Amino acid sequence: KMLKKEVIIFLVILLLISNSSLIAASLIGFGFYNSQVSGRVIGSSQHPFLLVTETEYSELQALASQSPWKEMKASAISNAKSLTYDVSADFDHRVRRMKDITSYAALAYILDPSGRTTYKNKIRDTIPYWDDLYDELAPKGTDVWSHEVPPGSAFFNSVLAYDIIYDDLTSAERTNIEARLNKISDWYYSASYPHPENSYGVVGIWAIFKGDSTRLSWAKSEYRSKLMAYITPSGVYTQGPGYAGNRMGDGRDAKAYFMDVLEFTGEDSYYSDSKLRNFYEWLYGYANGPFGLQYAFGDSEPNGEVDPVSPAAFRAYRYSDLAAGYASWNSKGQQPSGRLLEYLLMREPLAAPQRPLSRIFTDGGAWFIEDSSSAKALAGVLWNPKSSAGHSHNEINAISIVGYGEHLLRNSGYAGWGEGYYGFSWDYVHDTAVSGNTLLINGSDHASKNGAGISEGFTSSRFDYSSGNSGPAIAGGKHDRNLVFIHPQDSRNGYFVLFDEVDATTAGVKTQLALHPNSNEYSIISDKTEYRWRIAPFSDSGTDVFVTLFLGTAPESVSVKDGLLARWTAEVDSFMGKYLYSTYATDNDGRKNMVTVIFPHDATHPKAAMTRLAGAGYSGASVDLGNSIKDIVLESSGSNAVNYNGITFKGLATAYRLNNNKVSFYFVRKGSSFDDGSSLKQGFSSTPLVSVYIKDKIGKIISPGGEVTFYYPGITGVKLNAQNLAILSSSTGSVKVNIPSGTHDIELVSSSQAAASCSSLGGTCNN
Fold first, then answer.
1. pLDDT tens-digit series, residues 641-658
2. What is the mean pLDDT of the chain?
3. Is the Cβ–Cβ distance between 41 and 24 less than 8 Å?
4. pLDDT one-digit tens code per residue, 581-622
5. Contact of 744 with 727, CB cutoff 8 Å
6. CA end-to-end span of the chain, whole Å?
7. Measured between alpha carbons, how far is 69 from 59 in angstroms, rounded to an integer?
8. CA distance linking residue 748 with residue 469, whole number of Å
9. Helices 274-286 and 241-248, packing angle to 10 deg
10. How big, in percent rounded to 5, are the helix, strand and coil portions of the chain?
11. Under a CB-based contact definition with an 8 Å cutoff, are residues 561 and 579 in contact?
């Protein structure tokens, strides 16, 4: 009791003779506060502390001696002086003005001390206009979003600006401003509208400022929970690139940057979170295609992009060097504006641009990208997230193919929430699998927007492979979609192959394949076999781009159906897409494997000559690329060895290249053998089922663990992940080794290789 009395007396004395910072420090010492913010106390009168401290001002001012901070400073000063709030403007304009004025003026206040009074007054006189905005926060008609989310961003910047000028205001001015901001925060705390992350950011930033531990605890807990639920552990945003960019890499500041305030104030940790690291690498490396437009999965606008110059892009380095490199690549040299968030969050120079390469996100999908810096590079995606949310579509195992500057195959995407078009309902756009590049069993819609992820796959500089497992998405059975990207090589064009494998629960049912070229202009080259689309151009290159769909496995029937309206820009007409709908019969066990070749081409990338192949136990295609280079792609049940023109394999699928009738690379999916038929053969035989790709003795292998024998002229050993494997047995032209479980790099070591190495050293080899 005496101790408590002494404490009270001590605090009373401090109130009389000291300042509030000492009181706050004393309260911490006695346990009244347990949360500190960058060395300052939540709820104290010391400001700024939400995203910057006064001690950092000199550092921030010094940055403005160099680009791009120099230009950002000039922009902030110019806009802070020139922008005004117009009460007669429409609501959207007034909200943008509130955000812009508070953001630009707060940054100018930090960087231009000589004009500090001007900027302070601009912020002080603008924030009271929240009274003008308050009555319109309630949704008008059905446009809930514009009357909730943009005002949330404006509020977020208003609080940051108020925090920065706080110490330059009189007590009466503070009271006046806080009355307005309190009212707005209370509205968001009480409102129950469909954008919760926005409300968490609004309520949370004000709770930190005011020292309201109850609301802060609620906001930061719910914010983290909701945010992380949308992202797979490997980093894929389950609702698609569009909303990933909108919510986490765009101008929805309360949603995207509350995490930065929590990080700065020590209330939570985000920059070191592995899921967010993976996410920002995915967002800036893989949400957009090489041509700068986002892939249309979920509610993503096909002509949209992940914002290349948002604050999130310029603070990507806080998550990883790779994310920073991808963000620089995505920015295409564009510079940040002079807003507060960009400047405060970008304390390091832009990273060197880093071009994304093919990558598999096991719980979200596979991204295959041509190894080229051109915006016209080829790329393909196999989409298979293990979770979903409100902006997800029924498109598990859907694909998207881009190339030569265009969308070649795309999914429905959307043109606005709840909007159907050209006679198609919103349900069709948002919830019907056939609106995307998907597979159906018995014509039935998908049962779930969740898949089982990528079950296996690998990437390499010349050949990419992934296998997507439908999981719960298809109620009538299982679908394994295998996407292969044969990169441009040997001075020949690149293209894609689908190996679709269906295992229906009911024998003899039909299965359907829907493929949506981004066009309404098509030609039937060969009925039920080859179809060509002239792609509706987005780019202004003036060059026609085409995609040919070749059905290597014969369907029962094929129809061309009306698809969705495609919208581009005012300069390019909209059109009703036409898509290919192929039907196949399953066998008496309900199984069916299918081969489809997707071949992009234009004036400088000629189309291959393709021929359907069919025989005992197999179907597929010959892809003749010219000048004695021909690829063979085949499917099989995997139960028996298949012989085609003297080359045999046993597995679910194979793809191999013949260069002057000699195999230059081969791939087998879940198989036990490949034999090129030569007297000194190359290939493999395996006890377990493995997936193998070999080109010029270098390749990949996916194994459950077990013994594999490799055949190659002069082979003397095998390296796995650059380490020599123990040889179990060997003979002329063959080596048996044990391959452990997993996905591995593999290299075949041969006597000719050893001889070349000895010769290069000037020695004599004894092979």
1. 999 999 999 999 999 999
2. 90
3. yes
4. 999 999 999 999 999 999 999 999 999 999 999 999 999 999
5. no
6. 92
7. 12
8. 31
9. 120
10. 30, 30, 35
11. yes
Report the 10 Å Cβ neighbour count for 354.
18
For tokens 């070191």, the residue is: 272
User: 630: which residues sit within 8 A by CB, 6+ positions away?
Assistant: 622, 623, 624, 657, 658
pTM for this predicted structure? 0.91
Query: CB–CB of 239/299 below 8 Å?
Result: yes
Q: Do residues 649 and 641 make contact, with C-beta atoms less than 8 angstroms apart?
A: yes
> Measured between alpha carbons, how far is 126 from 159 in angstroms, rounded to an integer?
12
Measure the CA angle with vertex 297, ends 293 and 303; round to 5°. Answer: 30
Fill in the DSSP letter of residue 77.
Answer: H
How large is the average pLDDT for residues 235-249?
Answer: 94
Q: Measure the CA–CA gap between 686 and 683, rounded to whole angstroms.
A: 10
**Which residues contact residue 426 at a Cβ distance below 8 angstroms, ignoring those fewer than 6 apart?**
418, 419, 420
Residues β-bridged to residue 466: 457, 483
Give residue-wise pLDDT tens across range 297-330.
999 988 889 999 999 999 999 999 999 999 999 9
Contact 189, 199 (CB under 8 A): yes
Q: Is there a contact between 296 and 303 (Cβ–Cβ < 8 Å)?
A: no
Residue type, 679: S
Instruction: Provide Rg for the chain, Cα atoms.
Output: 31
Instruction: Provide the β-strand partners of residue 332.
Output: none
Residue with tokens 């300052």: 40
